[in-house]
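#onboarding

Welcome to the new folks! Below is a worked example of what a typical request in this channel looks like: someone posts a single protein sequence, and someone else replies with the predicted structure as tokens. Don't worry about understanding the tokens yet, we'll cover that in week two.

Example request:
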Amino acid sequence: MNYQIPRVQIVPQADDQVAFQVDGQERLRWHAAPRYPRPFFFPLVGPSGRSVIRMGHPAAPDHGHHRAFWWGHQNIGGVNFWEERGGSQQVRQEDWIHYQDGAEEAGIVVKIGWFDQHKTKLMQQELIAVYRPLDKGESWLELQTTFTSPLEVLPIGKTNFGFLGLRVAASMSTSYGGGKLTSGEGTVGEKDIFGRQAKWLDYSGPIVGQTWDGVTWCDHPSNPNYPTSWHVREDGWMSAAFCLREGYELRKGQSLTLRYGFHVHAGPVEAKTADQQQQAFAAARKWEVVKVDRPWRVALRRLEGK
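Example response:
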């Protein structure tokens, strides 16, 4: 028998959770229980062995909606899917489409619905998340998401908040730790990065003792409004703010696909390495779900052709 256990595995857990494991050790977890207002990732383990993201704001009790690394938006057809301040609107995983293990990477494909307070679906989201371990405990996470709507026209409002937010560990932040924000344009700090465009953004800082970890968030050239405008805070927050400069209309029969890459690295960011990661990501083809023979009904592959 020539079977070999895949090095990178997707392992379902209790309470609608999914662990991304490398050599049997968890490196990332997806939470999709319906008791939450939206799905989210936590933890995301860095080379140090600690999570580089955290749940909630270090000092603001009213920021419980900061669920580490999560999907949301402040204005989808006039409905707030961000702050969780009352109402019964929800971003809810409806089903999983595919889990795929591999020798070098593993991925999930899930179906997510965005429902207003009347339980009307405003938007459908397909999320593909692919995790690849790198050398020395570093990793690469690629997120590809496609939004569609059953409505004739769904207005997505101008806002700093959405579609995706990430909160780093408190010690990695500038305000509550010794961290540093750096953009792909060579600027440093919230004042010179907030609201400005850049092809990548990095948050790095101490995670344990004198050891630093960091996260470089890469935008993809295929995304509308590339390079994205960034919503950043020295309290440990960063987001590719898709609607920071203007709103967007999602029409029936059309789709909006966004692609983001995340390099979880050791030490402070090195601009040359970040540029190389972003360029490699820019050249990578999209993911697609294709029908295959058993044992899998479908498979996750890179799109063929140019």
